[in-house]
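Lab notebook, bench 4. The sequencing result for the construct came back, and we need a structural model before the next group meeting so we can plan mutations. Quick request posted to the team channel:

Model the 3D structure of this chain.
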Amino acid sequence: MTVLAVALAGALGALCRYAIAVLIGPLAFPWATLGVNVAGSFMLGLLYAFAPVPDGVLRVAVGTGFLGAFTTFSTFSVETVALVHEGRPVLAAGYVLASVMLGIVAAFAGLLLGERVS
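Done. Here's the predicted structure in token form:
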């Protein structure tokens, strides 16, 4: 049952990620990836607050399935390399810094919010 839940949640996460990329479209800065990674970090923080049992079906399905497919670290890595390759290393460094810092802040905010609400 858990495997099926992860698979279905992963399909939904991938579809949501794709929809966001299509809606935002190609830009000079990878805003869609940054936004998805920050939102995913926030949602994972909330999940850890609301579903503290690491092996519970909800946490595994949403955390590993949905958010695993929704967030895009590999895309983030390739976009960073592409910015450097295009001769924009300062923009690449800003992208890395923004992604890491905002992701950590979003995860922390999600966890704090979840703990206050639960």
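The first helix runs from residue 2 to 24.
Will bring this to the meeting.
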